[in-house]
Each structure stands twice: as C-alpha cells, then as structure tokens.
Specification:
Largest sheet of chain A: 8 strands, mixed
Number of helices of chain B: 15
Strand content of chain B: 15-25%
Strand content of chain A: 25-35%
Radius of gyration of chain A: 23 Å
Oligomer: heterodimer
Number of strands of chain A: 14
Structural class of chain B: alpha/beta
Distance between the termini of chain A: 45 Å
Helix content of chain B: 25-40%
Structural class of chain A: alpha/beta
Chain lengths: 338, 506
C-alpha cells in the first residue's frame, strides 16, 4: 500500500483523463465532451461501506450538481496509508451528441493519515468554487484530527441521526464555526412544509395563539435528534405568532427508535385549533395523515435517500438562518433532558 | 395576530397555494382532461395544494360527483406528463372534486354554482377564495363573466379571479369589446389571460438569463446584436381542428400572442423589481414600441403560407384545403412570417424575424440571437471565421441554451471552427420541469400575474398584427405555396434575403 499522494500527480492524471475522453468521443462530430463543475464535493466514508453506494449517489447528483467528487475511504489502522485513483463519470443527455463529464477521485487512507490529508486535498479542490465536505461516519467526525480536515470546506454535511447522544452532537454542531447542514434536519423538510401549508390559511393562522400544547411522539427511549429539531422549530414558529405552548414528549410502542410517529398541536379547550399529523410507513414510502379539526387529508412523502437529501442541501450554498435558529433551540431542549 | 406565516421557510419550501376552490367551466372538455386536471393533480402530488383544496367542474353533461371523479381519474392517469400516478394521492385529491351540470346561458346554473361554492367553503375551509377557469369557447367568455357577476360570485369572503384562454378577441376591436365585458364584473388585476408559452420554464429562464447575469445584458442591444429569429414550428397539421383554425390562422393563433410575448421578453428593458406589474409594464412598453407597418410595407415584411399535400416518410399527407372541415378554397395562413422592428434606442434597426407554421419539418420553438461578426478578419480566409456568434434559447422540445462561438481547430495553422456550449435545462437540473399549466395555475392561485397577459399587452400586440391582417384580408393568395414537411414558402426566404439574412435551420 502506498503511503503518499502527490496532488500534482493527481491533477496531471485528471488532465490526461480529459485528453483521453476527448479522443474517445465520436470523431464524426466536433462537439467533444463538456466538463461540468459547480463545486468540489468531498465525501468521507468508512472502508467497510460499500463504495458503490456512495458512487451511485454521486452519479445521481452529478447532472444537477456537477462537481469534482473526491471520496476518501478510511480504514481503521495505525499504519499510515494513502493512495489515490482518478476516473470520470460521463453522461449523454437525451437527444444530444455531446457527453457531459465530471471528475472523480478516490483516495484510500488510514486513520493515521488523517492529519496529512488536508494538504493533499486542498490543492485538489477546484479553484473559485465552493468546497463541501460530507462526513458519512460518526466515528470519523469524532476523531480529534477531523476539524483540521473540515477547515478546507465551506460547508460541512453530516447526519446527526447516526449519533447515539442527541444532546452531545447538537451541542457540538452548535459550538462549531463552520456552516453545517444536518441531514436529520433535511429529512424534516417535507413534514415542516406540510405544517407550514396549514398556516397559509389566514383563518388557521389567526388561531395559532390558541395552541397551548405541542406533543411529539417518537420511537425509542429518548427523543431522537430530529424530534428536538422539530420541536424547536415548531415552538419558535408558534411563539412568533403569539402562542405560548407547553412541550410534551410521548414514547410510542412499536415504532422504531429514531422515528417521529405523531405530532399534535392542541388548544386548551376543545374548541381550540387541533392539528394532528401521523406519520407511517417506511423510509421508502412515508405517508402522512393530517387532521385539522375535522378535515383529514393524506399525503405521500417522496423517498428519503441520500441523493434526495444531498440534492436539497447542495442547493443551499450559504447559511440557513432557519436551521441555525432551530439548532440553537434544539441544543437547549436536548441539554435540558440530560 | 401574525400577518405572515411564521412557519414559512422560503429557502427550502416550494411556493404553496392558499386554500381555495377552482371552478372550471367546460369541465367535460379536452383542455380540462388533458391539461388542467393533470396539472392540478400534479400540484397535489407535489404537496403544493392546501388541505381543503376543491375543484368544481361545470358543463352541460349531467353527471354525478362520483362519475366526474371516475372520468377525471382516467384522464389524469392517461395524460400525466413525466409523472407517476399515485392511488393514495389521487384518493385524497378526488375527495375535493365536485361536479355540477349547467349551461352558461342559463342564469339558474350560476345561482346553483354560488350555492355549491358556499357549501364547499364551509366543508372544505376554502375561505371563500375562488378561481374561475373558463375552459370554454371564447364566444362564451362574456356570458360566463356576466353570469358569475349576476349571481354575486365576483365578490365574496375571499379573493375571486378569472382565467381565460386565448384568443382574446380576433382583432383589436373585439379584444377591447371582450375586455369591457370582463371589466363589468372583474377588475383587471383579477383577470388572468393565460398564455401557456409564458409558463414554459425556458421562457421564464430568459428573464433569469438576461437579468440574473451581468455578462449578457451589456451585449443585449443594437450595437452587438445583428438580428433575432423566433421560430415556432409544428410538424403536425390542424389535427381535426380545421374548423377553428380556418377562422384563426397562424398569425392570429401564434404570432399575435405567444411569439410577440416571447419577443417582448427577449427585448424588454429590465424591470426594477420582479413584481408582476413591474415585469408586465416593461413587456407592455416593448410591445407598444413595435413599429406598426404601413399598408404598403406589409407585403414586403410579412409572408402568408399554406401547406399543400406531400408524401412524408412513406405516407401521404393531405394539404390544408383537404383537411376535414376546411373550405377547399381557404385563404387561411397555416404559415406566417413577419419582420418587426422595435423603435427604441436599444433595438433601433435590429430586425426581429418571426415565423410560425404547421406541417413544417419538425416541432421546435427557439429564439436565435445573432451577434455581429468580429469587426476585422484577423485570421484571414479560413472559411469559418465569418460565422457569427449565435445565442440560441430553446423553448421546446429540448429546453436549453446554446452559445455558438469560434475556436481554433487543433493542429498546425490557425483554422477556426464553430463550437457550441450547451446548457440543457432538463439534463442539467435533473428534476422534472413543471408543465406550463402547473406553473400558470399555481401562479393564478397564488395571485402572481407575472406570466399572464394584461389587456394593454393584448391591445399592443393586436396593434402590431392587425395592419398585416388587414392587408392579407384583401389579398388573394396563390395557396398552397409550400409543401407539407418543408420550411415554408419561398417568399419567406426572400423576405429575409432582402434584409441580408437567411433563416436558420433549427
């Protein structure tokens, strides 16, 4: 196993790759290949993960978020190991004669090499374009050398639902200086959107101050990170509209840990606004039954996979004020339960 | 009470429709089945509709709510574009579908509809907001509006808006007459004149392209732009609509509305804001600056054509005059081309060539902006150097933008060749583009009229087109003058040649 990577060499290999792609393109047409790049997307994965899963997510993202994709596969090892390979992903839009290609670099590294990675990855980032770091492993995020690597990114993506301690991870995200996107928050967009839609109605909006109770039902022993996020967001919104609700947690039997199964907004009296949102199904097909007073509607949520979540997050290049405000309150709520 | 919805997250949430009901007149017609209901269902699928959203279909055919739901289910499943049909979504959506038999000529039908809408307001919590959609013959627009007004439905607890489809009159006078009738019941701000071309993603993208980027606008004037070509070609004929088409023709059916709106979008000045009226003011201003042709200028600057029979791909294709319901001596234009000039500082002297026709070689709509050639041929005679830069905005079928420029051929010597830099809307953003009707219905329910045509725009575009129609009306054309499957009459090529140009082959 190699122990060094020379960035110049990797860049040279990339340049050669483009020459090869140009030669391989249909010689009868002068259209050639088109290089597309909007960012550098660095993904950290454990070596035990199937790399084809990550690359298939990258492949799905490329047409929408063309990027130089760098996947770093980590091996738990005390020995220093670093090696790389470059390749490309091309696709031919329907009805077109020209291929669109994106560059892909795979780096294999060991834990012991983590401190050396930043100087290797930095020159590989495409100039003048944002660098996004997606950390798919909770273990890697906790490594003491991780912040050094994270420094090169403009934005950090992680999934806090992979962490066992909601209060700990929320506090850590909040204390960092980096622009962070949490996929546990992204998963809530559909639910939040549905709740927001209720209050597009002036009559329901005018009844928001009646809400005295927010009740969240979840699977597992303690509320998951997503439940803290949802509770924090709802409390913030209700308070902004003049309500002063009480938050109640409820454990649901038979619901897998980490899932939110029900949300209830209720007034103090029976005549007050009453909203319940019941979520069922699995991540492949989630259904939501929304009841507002006596009106019941059913909604199907789109599939929540890595591709869909990243697609949403990569569309937001800068800070997300709603998320940051919610994160602060979610961290406080989770901290109170400790 | 908060005035704004505190739950909104504009960075992540799509625009949502407030609670409302849509009343569709002509609910048993083709437009409802093929476009409107599939678009509304798709908005439901995308979770854009409010929980109590309702549709009331109105037409003469007696039918129960359940029969209407069953018919619409069949149509939606059949005509949905690039989208799956989900039974669960449909079931929830269908709960809000209602039907009522009634004739636009019968006052009682409107009284019944008013009662129906009141019940729906109570049980579906639609807050009295109603969008009336006239998917009927244009001749019924005035009667429908009058009926709505007489039954007291033009005002209510919430907003009331009306959507009408083109044609908005058949000339300037009838357009004004229609407008006056509508204004007796609705305010201009509540009248939504639909032009589905403006709802297309790429037409909207023209605004993003022009006003969201700093590099193009400095070039967007007579100093750098040599000419503009707008082509809207259809490969099909009149497809059983011979009777209607015979009264309309290509100039009325396409150029007066869609293509002049596109031209206005291409040539308008930047608006100060993206507020609906600010954008529409600029569009209207541009339409008013189109030079009106004098009668003696019309034949040199416009061409009428009509397709004749041909054999295409081994099959015989009939000429327009042989189509069902068409007069065998018809003088209707199935092809129209015109050269327009815009009398303002930005565009003075730049010709805008516009053409539209049926039975052309392929279905394509695109705008080609040709820039001036480099002022001096630095690289000598190499064959391609005088190829002008072209910016092509493709509206359909492949929505996208291409820029053609010159590049050095690899190898020894300085030989140049044109290359194209492409942006493909569908493949670049991966996701499905909403159909024009999804966009326009959503906008009407939200109250965003940016992509709708205003009366002053309708009148301005009739003002540009009517002089051509008047001259054509007194002409006896030697039709047919182009074979089906070709790019139109020879006279059209000659019209461009007189200006030193030639039509591009899209």
């Amino acid at each position: 196993m190699s122990t060094t990577i020379q960035p110049e060499r990797v860049l040279k290999e990339l340049a050669e790759l483009w020459v090869t792609l140009g030669k391989e393109s249909d010689p009868s047409h002068s259209s050639g290949v088109l290089r597309a790049c909007a960012m550098t997307l660095i993904t950290l994965v454990e070596e035990s993960e199937d790399p084809s899963d990550v690359w298939s997510t990258m492949a799905a993202l490329m047409p929408e978020h063309p990027s130089r994709a760098i996947v770093i596969r980590f091996k738990q090892s005390a020995a220093r190991e670093l090696s790389s390979r470059v390749f490309s992903q091309c696709w031919m839009p329907f009805g077109h004669r020209r291929q669109i290609c994106c560059e892909q670099i795979e780096i294999s590294a060991s834990d012991a090499s983590l401190p050396e990675l930043a100087p290797v990855v930095l020159p590989l980032a495409v100039a003048d374009l944002p660098v996004v770091l997606w950390c798919r492993s909770a273990r890697l995020f906790r490594l003491p050398e991780f912040p050094q690597l994270a420094k090169i990114a403009n934005k950090l993506l992680l999934d806090s639902s992979a962490f066992a301690d909601p209060a700990g991870i929320l506090a850590r995200i909040q204390s960092g200086q980096k622009v962070v996107s949490d996929l546990a928050w992204t998963r809530l967009t559909r639910v939040r959107e549905l709740i927001s839609q209720i209050f597009e109605s002036r009559s329901y909006l005018s009844r928001v101050p009646e809400v005295a109770l927010v009740k969240l039902t979840f699977g597992g022993v303690i509320p998951p990170v997503s439940a803290f996020y949802l509770a924090a967001w709802i409390l913030d919104c209700l308070e902004a509209a003049g309500a002063h609700p009480y938050l109640e947690w409820e454990r649901a039997a038979g619901v897998p840990a980490g899932r939110i199964s029900r949300l209830e907004l209720a007034g103090e009296s029976d005549s007050g606004l009453h909203v319940t949102l019941t979520i069922s199904g699995d991540p492949a097909r989630q259904m939501a039954e929304l009841q507002i007073d006596s009106l019941v509607t059913n909604t199907v949520f789109p599939t929540d996979n890595d591709y869909a979540l990243l697609r949403e997050e990569l569309s937001i290049p800068g800070r997300d004020a709603v998320y940051e405000r919610t994160l602060a309150r979610a961290a406080r709520l989770a901290g109170q339960g400790k | 009470m908060a005035l704004e919805n505190p739950f909104q997250d504009p960075l992540r949430f799509e625009r949502r429709i407030p609670e409302c009901a849509v009343a569709i007149f002509g609910a048993n017609g083709d437009l409802t089945k093929r476009k409107l209901l599939p678009a509304l269902y798709r908005l439901a699928y995308e979770r854009r509709l409010s929980p109590g959203f309702a549709v009331v279909g109105i037409s003469r055919t007696p039918m129960s709510d359940d029969q209407f739901r069953a018919n619409m289910r069949e149509s939606v499943a059949k005509f949905l574009e690039d989208s799956p049909f989900d039974e669960d979504v449909w079931n929830t959506f269908a709960q809000g579908l209602y039907y009522m038999a009634g004739d636009i000529g019968d006052a009682q039908a409107f009284t019944n509809l008013a009662e129906h809408l009141k019940k729906i307001e109570e049980c579906r919590h639609t807050a009295g907001n109603v969008l009336f959609y006239l998917s009927t013959q244009p001749s019924q627009y005035a009667a429908a509006a009058k009926g709505i007004g007489a039954a007291g439905m033009a005002t209510g607890n919430g907003w009331r808006r009306i959507v009408i489809e083109k044609p908005f009159g058949h000339d300037l006078e009838s357009a004004r007459e229609l407008s006056e009738k509508l204004h007796e019941v609705f305010r201009e701000s509540d009248i939504y004149r639909i032009d589905h071309y403006l709802g297309k993603e790429t037409v909207q993208n023209i605004l993003a392209f022009r006003f969201g980027n700093g590099i193009f606008e400095p070039l967007w004037n007579r100093r750098y732009v040599n000419s503009v070509q707008i082509t809207a070609a259809e490969s099909i004929g009149v497809e059983g609509r011979g009777g209607y088409y015979q009264e309309a023709g290509a100039l009325r059916d396409m150029i007066q509305n869609h293509l002049l709106q596109i031209m206005a979008t291409i040539a308008m000045e930047p608006s100060a804001t993206f507020q609906p009226d600010a954008v529409r003011d600029e569009r209207a201003k541009l339409l008013r600056t189109i030079r009106v042709m004098k009668p003696d200028e019309v034949l040199a600057n416009s061409v009428a054509g009509q397709y004749g029979p041909a054999r295409i791909g081994g099959a015989d294709v009939v000429g327009f005059r042989q189509e069902k319901g068409v007069d065998p001596n018809s003088q209707t234009d199935t092809y129209a081309a015109a050269t327009f000039f815009v009398d303002n500082w930005r565009w003075a002297g730049v010709p805008f060539f516009i053409r539209s026709g049926k039975r052309l070689p392929k279905r394509v709509t695109e705008i080609a902006i040709q820039f001036n050639a480099a002022p001096h041929a630095v690289f000598g005679d190499n064959g391609d150097e005088d190829t002008p830069n072209l910016l092509i905005l493709r509206i359909q079928p492949e929505e996208g933008i291409s820029l053609r420029f010159l590049s050095k051929r690899p190898g020894a010597g300085m030989k140049l060749r044109p290359v194209s830099m492409d942006f493909n809307y569908g493949s670049s953003f991966g996701e499905r583009s909403p159909t024009a009707y999804e966009t326009l219905l959503l906008d009407a329910m939200i109250g965003d009229a940016t992509l709708y045509t205003r009366q002053d725009m309708v009148e301005a575009s009739w003002g540009a087109v009517e002089p051509i129609l008047n001259v054509w009306h007194n002409q006896k054309f030697d039709f047919p003058n182009y074979e089906a499957g070709t790019w139109g009459p020879k006279a059209s090529d000659e019209m461009l040649a007189r200006h030193g140009h030639e039509w591009r082959t899209p």
